[in-house]
Amino acid sequence: MSLKIKIWTLALLWISIVCTAVLATDSLIIRIILAAVLLGVTIHIVLIKTLRDTDALTLNKTTKNKN
Questions:
Q1: Domain ranges across the chain
Q2: Crossing angle, helix 28-47 and helix 3-19, to 10 degrees?
Q3: H-run or E-run covering 58
């Protein structure tokens, strides 16, 4: 996963969950659950190995050679 994709993913995740917690529910329990999901998914995405530009070029060359 490239750094650009990670940033977009995390931005959309945070925006959507925060908006949902603020606008869509008044329940404290649901907000706590949403916060836990937000933190868990954020940690998971951050821990995924970031694909570098050189890795992407190598991957593209490898897949082109297989075809």
A1: 3-62
A2: 180
A3: helix 53-66
The rounded distance, in Å, linking the Cα atoms of 54 and 41 is 27
Per this entry, what is the length of the chain? 67
The model's pTM is 0.75
DSSP structure string for 18-41: HHIIIII---HHHHHHHHHHHHHH
d(CA 19, CA 25): 10
Paired tokens of 25: 């529910």
Rounded mean pLDDT of 24-29? Answer: 97
Q: Classify 50 in phi/psi space as left (phi over 0), alpha (psi -120 to 50) or beta.
A: beta
- Contact between 50 and 7 under an 8 Å Cβ cutoff? The reply is no
